[in-house]
Amino acid sequence: MSIKKKISLFFTLLVLCILLANNTLHYIRSKNRLIEFNQKEITLVTEEIAYEVENSKNSALYMEDRMAQELRTASIAIQRSLPSKYQDISNERLKELAKQLRVSHITLLAPVEGDIIGVRSSDSKEINMSTKEWSYWYTSFQELLANRPVTTKKGMALPNFWSGPIEVASSNPKHVDKWGYYYDGSTNYIINPYFRDKDVINIEKQFGPTNVMNRFTKSLDGVLELTVFNPTNFGRHNQSVYLNGNRYVKMKDQPIWYGTYTYQNTKRDKAFMKKALKTGRSQRYLSEINKKQVLKTFVPIKEDKSAPYVIGVVYDYGLIETELHQELVKHLLLSLPFILLVLIVSIIFSTSITRPIKNVMEHVNHIAKGNFGKILAVRRRDELGGLIENINHLSHFLKTYLHDLKSSQEESEFHAYHDSLTGLPNRRYFKEELNRRLIESQQKIIKHVAVLFMDIDRFKDINDTLGHSKGDQLIQLVAHRIKACLPPYNSFLTRQGGDEFVVLFSDFSPVEVEKFARKIILDVQQPCYIKGDEIVVSISSGLSFYPEHSTNLDTLITYADMAMYASKRKGGNKVMVYHELLNEKQTEKMQIEKRLRKAIQKETIEVYYQPKVDARRNTIMGVEALVRWHDEELGFVSPDVFIDVAEEAGLIHSLWGSVMNIACEQISKWNKLFNQELTLAVNFSPRQFQDSSLLVHEVKNVLSSYKLNPGSFEMEITESTLLINTQETIKALHELKEYGISISIDDFGTGYSSLSYLKKLPIDCLKIDRSFIQDIQEDYSNSEIAQAIISLSQSLKLEVIAEGVEEEYQKAFLMENGCDHMQGYLFSKPLAAKDFEAAFLNS
Predict the structure, then answer these.
(1) What is the mean pLDDT of residues 359-383?
(2) Going by C-beta distance under 8 Å and a sequence separation of 6 or more, which residues neighbour residue 527?
(3) Is the pTM of this model over 0.85?
(4) How far lies 790's CA from each of 743, 752, 802, 805, 819, in Å?
(5) Burial of residue 483 (number of CB atoms within 10 Å: 0-12, 13-18, 19+)
(6) What is the distance, to the nearest Å, from the Cα of residue 707 to the centroid of all Cα atoms in its chain?
(7) By Cβ atoms counted within 10 A, which residue in 10, 72, 565, 620 is the most buried?
(8) What's the structural domain count of the chain?
(9) pLDDT of 754 strictly over 60
(10) Structural domain includes residue 396
């Protein structure tokens, strides 16, 4: 669509939107005015109804008193017309007397067996009727029979007479009655004449607000229904009472006092009544009821001397909508001439603008084709003239931009192939370079190609301890040292990412390449200083050669990587050359990892238990839980093999979880079964402390799940654990110690050489490594290390336990030097749970 048409359409739509907005605003205002008028009308109606309700209450009370006086007069006439004993009176006589005195019915009440019942009556349903459950009515009867004044506040009390309020008859809830009760002591019964139904209900019709409410619903357009609600019982299901075998609702408990309730919406109406009474303001809502759109309004009425009530008004909202629709149509018809006028004006205006724009567009097309030199003459001083000047400037700018773009592309290409931290070629550059050299080797241009893969040992720990800033500086320093060790020709150094570096050698013999690698290792491990911190690092290296090991690019990199990891497994700080055995070990490791993952998922991991004994008392203190794995394909797999695989594959935490749950559940059963508390020792991997806070939570959770005493649980860690996340690890150990768990250093003396941590950490026990116990001879020679560890633990007030005890003389030596706690094959090998029970717990 052309700009000319767009401008015309835009202005037309703009005016249309303005007119629609104006009409909408007028519609909303008209709606609010109509609703406001409706509410004012409703207010006047409810005020008059409330006035009539209050008047009806006063008039009804007056008429009730008049009726009570008439009933007393009738009672005296009845008393004079009947024998003094009810046994001498027939029901037919009472019917005749009721007609003569113009009352609805006459009932005689008399005390019988702790109750006051109807003994004679012109109404058959009153005979044998019990009154004991009639509350204040029954109290009034007792006061009459005792010739005392009736003290009941409800109804009307006169000498020897009491008249109850108008109420539904409990003997026959289909009727509404006004009763009188007379007793002067001359008879053995209470005389009870009463008016029923029309004689009573005519009072409400004559003095109640019903006539006024009917007048409003007929005379006011839109008022569909008026109702006076009893908010206390409206919507309730338990307001009925059960007397004399009948269930009914008392008049004061009726949910609707006056009017009708045709437009029913009980649940929502109850909520709006409650809100109206709480706020003291009218509440309304719009809804479709009985297939009619109605506006319901609830007006709260609160009087000082009577219970509050709510007047409900149902208004036909369709009348409001009809009037609003007529208003809207009228305004829309008036808007059509304005829209037509705007359309004509916008066409004229758009033509004056689009003509010069066409010329500008042709000039821009020239620039788009690369013709930057042409200049368009400027004859206007408005915005279009400014646009033409800017286009002329754009033509000049594009020439400059193309020149700068070329320079920028060269810079971007450099960053795409180089590492931003060290400036070295990156992984992408390395692969392309390696591929190029392999092609040259295949074409006999070069004879040998070697890949040297290097990784900084424990860089993550250094990075976590010193911070990422110093870690980056260390990477830069190591890169500089590696580069300084390389020959200026036929070597290509790259950073693969993180702490990994790869060197590509060509036309060097394997012996020469290994010489370069060892020189790099020696230079890198020299102390370096970064912002006052002395740092000593080492690197592990792996070598692979083309074509000896592979002619495939990716395979050659993989082999160098495998050799590097083999170097790490042997302690790091050395170079390893790839050989086929590494590949076999890698394949074996992958198979073990695959089967181990399935074993953990299928819960086929087993736990064996090796007793910990008190040699002096010859008793079992507890057990150490040891993981065992018998695989269907691999057979028995040594823990020394599969635990290392689990740590490298990230399965160690799942494996620990299986061992922990099995062992804790078993110990819990044994403690209950044999009524003794065994201690349980479980080994923890250093890798588990990489998220020490999660580890603490899980240990507490497992012990709590099996209701094990933390004081009977022992955590065994190795000295290497203290090198991982040092601060977080120490914090976690302190938290577990406070929880009650004992902490033991396993294989003490074989790892971390510093002993300062023994004072800083919450350690409870040292375990003498089995290698030191095995060194002890029958003449106690080669026992110096074991004796030193025992002395050290005693001086630090730590417990000590020896593992790997297999000979009686080893046991004797340990006991002579104060080490009574032991474990080893001399006492028992690790046993399955059922074998452990048979060997020890059942003995």
Answers:
(1) 67
(2) 534, 535, 536
(3) no
(4) 17, 18, 9, 15, 7
(5) middle
(6) 28
(7) 72
(8) 3
(9) no
(10) no
At residue 826, the 3 state secondary structure works out as: coil
Identity of the amino acid at 191: I
Q: Which amino acid is residue 286, in one-letter code? A: L
Q: How many CB atoms lie within 10 A of CB 681?
A: 26
Question: Which H/E stretch holds residue 192?
Answer: strand 190-196
Helix or strand (DSSP H, E) at 621: strand 619-631
- Let me know whether 763 and 739 are in one domain: yes
Whether 567 and 603 map to the same domain: the answer is: no
3-state SS assignment for residue 665: helix
Three-state secondary structure of 702-753: HHHHCCCCHHHEEEEEEHHHHHCCHHHHHHHHHHHHHHCCEEEEEEECCCCC
C-alpha angle with apex 562: 556 to 566, nearest 5 degrees? 145
To which residue do tokens 């006052």 refer?
532
Determine the angle formed by the axes of helices 639-649 and 580-602, rounding to 10 degrees. 90
- CB-neighbour burial class of residue 752 (10 A; exposed 0-12, middle 13-18, buried 19+): middle
What sign results for the dihedral spanned by CA atoms 191, 196, 201, 203? negative
Distances (CA, A) of 707 to 48, 513, 664, 669, 744: 74, 61, 9, 11, 22
Assess whether pLDDT exceeds 90 at residue 303. Answer: no
Q: Give the Cα-Cα-Cα angle 261, 264, 270 (nearest 5 degrees).
A: 95
Indicate whether 724 and 650 sit together in one domain. yes
In this structure, the answer to whether residues 426 and 496 fall within a common structural domain is yes
Structure tokens that stand for 733 in this block:
């150990």
Q: Tell me whether the omega of the peptide bond preceding residue 337 falls within 30 degrees of 0, making it cis.
A: no
Does 227 have pLDDT greater than 80?
A: yes
Name the domain boundary from 518, 544, 578. Answer: 578
| Shared domain check, 597 and 564 | no
Q: Position 282: which residue type? A: S
> Are 192 and 253 contained in the same domain?
yes
Q: How far apart are CA 833 and CA 628, in angstroms?
A: 12
Structure tokens at 93: 């006589």
With tokens 């290296």, the residue in question is 541
Answer yes or no: is 731 within a domain: yes
At residue 255, the 3 state secondary structure works out as: coil
Task: Encode pLDDT of 466-519 as tens digits.
Answer: 777 888 888 889 999 999 999 988 888 998 888 889 998 888 888 898 999 999
User: Residues 684, 829: one domain?
Assistant: yes
Answer whether residue 371 is part of any domain: no
